[in-house]
Amino acid sequence: MSVTMMAFQQGKRVRFLWLAVPLLLTPILFSQSAWSPQTLPRHVIEFVGSALIILCVAGRCWASLYIGGRKNRELIANGPYRYTRNPLYFFSSLGLAGIGLAFGSLTIAVVYFLFGYLVFAYVSAREAISLDGLFGEAYWKYCRQVPAFFPRFRPGAGTHQMSATFNPVALKRTAIDSSCFLLAIPASDFIQALQFAGLIRPMLRLF
């Protein structure tokens, strides 16, 4: 498969994710946390959500240091790619779960994480076909050593040793994309204020 075709398919996947945004916003706009904002469980849930969002941003930037400018050109198997073949997808799913927690809901967090897992599992399966064509047996050897999604921390994971390559353009793009996750933190307070003002009427109370 040509690099042009792979870029085209990647563009379709990005557009699909943007189209899914309204669907993801629906449970946030029309539900509220079953925990009062003043309670300890609510504070703990929101704190964990913020921590997951920050971890998402840091993890995505970490992965970008290794794959920036090399995607579909080299088989990356170092850095976070020693532990999972899809660190960008894994950290993004954590960020989605963090968004749900930032809004005070364990239910939304689980739904968002599962959504991310299923979408990225489909995308990574499609990408595996392209990587097989590009790298052949070297890629499948890597697959046998490193899990597709959930990280496995063990010595010797990965097949290649290479240092991080600082690509300012790729890192900047990843940081900007990841900043969308950070917007969930102030957005949760804003939507909560709208609900208290009666401008948005939640229909469900979710734990």
From TrEMBL:
Keywords: Membrane, Transmembrane, Transmembrane helix. The keyword Transmembrane applies. The lineage of its organism: Bacteria, Pseudomonadati, Pseudomonadota, Alphaproteobacteria, Hyphomicrobiales. The chain crosses the membrane at residues 47-67, 88-120. It is found in: Endomembrane system. It is a multi-pass membrane protein. The keyword Zinc-finger does not apply. InterPro entries: Phopholipid_MeTrfase. This is Isoprenylcysteine carboxylmethyltransferase family protein. Signal peptide: none annotated.
